[in-house]
Amino acid sequence: MKLNQIPVRQMKGVSAQKEQELHAFGIHTIADLLDYFPFRYEDYRVRGLAETKSGEKGTVQGTIVGNPILQRYGRAKTRLTCKVAVDGILLTAVWFNRHFLQDQLTPSREIILTGKWEQQRLQLTVSSSEFPDSASARAGTLQPVYSVGGSITQSWIRKIIGLALQQYGAMMEEMLPVSLIDKYKLMPRREAVTRIHQPEDTTEGQAARRRLVYEELFLFQLKLQAYRSLNRKRMDGTAHVVDAESIRVFVRTLPFELTDSQKKVVNEILTDLRQPYCMNRLLQGDVGSGKTVVAAIALFAAVKAGFQGALMVPTEILAEQHLRSLQKLFAAAGLEVGLLTGSMGERKRRDVLAGLQMGLIDVIVGTHAIIQEGVNFRNLSLVVTDEQHRFGVNQRSILRRKGLNPDVLTMTATPIPRTLAITAFGDLDVSTLRERPQGRKPIKTYWVKHGMLDRVLGFIRREVDNGQQAYFICPLIEESEKLDVQNAIDLHIQIQQAFPDMRVGLLHGRLSASEKDETMGAFGRNEIHVLVATTVVEVGVDVPNATLMIVMDAERFGLSQLHQLRGRVGRGAHQSYCVLIADPKSETGRERMKVMTETEDGFEVARRDLELRGPGDFFGTKQSGVPDFKLADMAADFEVLEQAREDAAELTANADFWKEAAYARLREILKQDQLFQGDLLD
Ligand SMILES: Nc1ncnc2c1ncn2[C@@H]1O[C@H](COP(=O)(O)OP(=O)(O)OP(=O)(O)O)[C@@H](O)[C@H]1O
Questions:
Q1: Best substitution site from 292, 311, 441 to test ligand 1's pocket, by max atoms within 8 Å of Cβ?
Q2: If residue 493 lies in a helix (H) or strand (E), which one and from where to where?
Q3: CB of residue 435 inside a 6 A radius of ligand 1
Q4: Hey, which family's this protein in (predicted)?
């Protein structure tokens, strides 16, 4: 029996109700329980009074002198005091609401006190006390502090983990190969798990943590690297026969000349498409840098080679927009483009599904719906996805199980510093669009206070009179979508009242797909002058005639989000503006506004963002696609992550890893991961 197969209920003391509550903390098996690590320690080590600083918490040992005095005050409140001799000093120990201790405080008995020491008054306010002769004494130890709640208390979980260590500790298996344990002089697993729960001292706790952090990051990287290595080895991707001439002809039909950056990136992608292994490439380019057309060329190449392609986007608004632009681009070449979204009618959906299965549709555009059950392709060979986090390795394995192993091109407009990207996402190949199409004027960005709304309205008037359009964004914070939608509705009324002669549109997440589509379509045709919207327009929306982006309460947005929003303008030849309305309360908030007014370069914005937030926070956002680690901290443990990546890459590249007994345990772990289901690992 393995520890991860023994339900936690097997432990004495874990009732059915406790078991339920443990489940909420992700604890199902004994292995989970042992891996439920403390996030800090409480220090109960006994020190001399001289070493205990006044005003701070400490633990001391002394002898009770004289009888305790109990005072009652308020309703059912008590204050118990007693003189205790510690290191030759007579101090007053004070307990609040612990009247039941009175009988135990007998003169000349030894006692250990933990609490706040006030030297001036020779007084110690006790938070916990115990007698050295009692069995459950904590004194002398560092006590682990766990994340707890409900009927799971600190002392209960300490006890149950302590018992689990006694009962099952010997069954804990090593996971890391000896070579790595030796290389970094790591604690063996059994010892590390025991010590992280019950360290003798801080050094030991840290050494245990170091080992377990490495293990966690190594296993994370191992998964990514093993996946990549298998992928390369298998050579079961599609080796597209790319017809260079027809691509040249297609590019000539585009309404503009490709930038040098676009040409370079297209070549990188075409080279990948020709290879027999699967492409896994990240295309990063600043907002408005022209990623869509690059994707279109790649899709065109796949179709010309005799396959189908898919473009997966995060929202239905974007799906509709991309459908229209691809239809336009592919019209002359006679490619058939289809749309598949979650909110589509059943009949339409059935037609599309049939079209995909029979190969009548060459390129499908859609949301997540594309890779759901029941969607079958005739021969899908390329998936382009619009935001890196939406198409992770897991989605990939869904397709694999359908017998599909497409090349994947992931586009992101959130430029991630290269080292971070590579480290966090395994070994993606990265292509970067550095320049924007020619003729674009830099967007002018202003930061104004709420009091200046009148002038902002004047700005709208000027732009609309010039034939341009404006976005007016109000925040949408997930916790109270209802309130935020109300904000948008109110703002819409306010703007419409200010400009009775203009057409003011409203767009938010609560509208139906067709309502959204209608509004977006009308805005695209300049039938709506001002679009009041929530962040549903954040990514990808492309209306080149819009030249003014106003963001209400801009302090409520993160830097990359603001940059994305700003990127909705400046997409045509006209001068564009971004106005941030904000009264930030914090220094970081002000700093963010400053960064926005100082630079328009997405890479620079990302760099400053990283500086302001640190990599921990950067990766903490949903954007990153990086899982929550139990122990590891992306910021503090970043170097370990780098190291772990190198180790994992080296190991999986070595043929021994896939057959030697020494690595059987690691292969076992991989096999259990759903990512590798259906794959033969050895
Ligand atoms: N080489 C080019 N020359 C001129 N215009 C171009 C060029 N490439 C793309 N465009 C136009 O630039 C605009 C922005 O392109 P696109 O929508 O592909 O940007 P993007 O990189 O996807 O940006 P975002 O992440 O903001 O959506 C589009 O209107 C597109 O037609």
A1: 292
A2: helix 481-498
A3: no
A4: Belongs to the helicase family. RecG subfamily.
Question: 82 in helix, strand or coil?
Answer: strand
Amino acid at 578: C
What residues contact 48, with CB distance under 8 A and at least 6 apart?
A: 60, 87
Q: Do the Cβ atoms of 381 and 359 come closer than 8 Å? A: no
Token reading at 50: 């001289």
User: Mean pLDDT per 10-residue run, the chain (682 residues)?
Assistant: 91 92 93 93 85 89 93 90 93 93 92 92 91 72 88 92 94 92 95 94 91 94 82 77 92 92 94 89 85 95 95 85 91 94 88 94 90 86 72 67 82 65 64 83 92 90 94 75 76 92 90 85 92 79 91 88 90 91 89 92 80 57 57 76 87 89 88 64 47
Which residue has its alpha carbon closest to ligand 1 atom 3?
A: 437
Measured in angstroms, how far is the CA atom of residue 289 from the centroid of ligand 1?
Answer: 5
Q: Over the range 67-90, which residues count as b (16 or more CB within 10 Å of their CB) and which as e?
A: ebebeeeeeeebbbbbbbebeeee
Angle of CA points 229, 230, 233, to nearest 5°? 85
Instruction: Give me 323's structure tokens.
Output: 């459908």
- d(CA 305, CA 314) in angstroms, rounded, equals 27
Indicate the length of the chain as a whole number: 682
Helices (H), 501-631: 513-524, 559-566, 587-598, 602-620
ipTM above 0.95, yes or no: yes
Of all protein residues, the one whose alpha carbon is nearest to atom 5 of ligand 1 is: 437
**Do the beta carbons of residue 386 and residue 409 sit within 8 Å?**
no
597 within 8 A of 605, measured Cβ to Cβ: no
Pairing outcome for strands 89-96 and 77-86: antiparallel
Mutate to test the pocket of ligand 1, among 252, 254, 256, 384 (most ligand atoms within 8 A of CB): 256
Closest CA relative to residue 118, chosen from 91, 85, 86, 83? 91
Backbone dihedral angles phi then psi of residue 377, each to the nearest 5 degrees: -105, 160
Mutate to test the pocket of ligand 1, among 520, 571, 574 (most ligand atoms within 8 A of CB): 571
As a whole number of angstroms, the distance between CA 291 and CA 299 comes to 12
The residue with tokens 């997540």 is: 368
Q: Is 544 in the pocket of ligand 1 (CB under 6 A)?
A: yes
The radius of gyration computed from the CA coordinates of the chain, to the nearest angstrom, equals 31
Amino acid at 20: Q
The residue whose CA has the least distance to atom 27 of ligand 1 is 540
Q: In degrees rounded to 5, what are phi and psi of residue 432?
A: -130, 130
Amino acid type, 273:
L
Tell me the one-letter amino acid at 144: P
Contact 409, 269 (CB under 8 A): yes
Q: Give residue for tokens 């799971």.
A: 152
In order of their start, the domains of the chain are 1-41+156-172 (1.10.150), 45-140 (2.40.50.140), 244-274+290-412 (3.40.50.300), 444-599 (3.40.50.300)
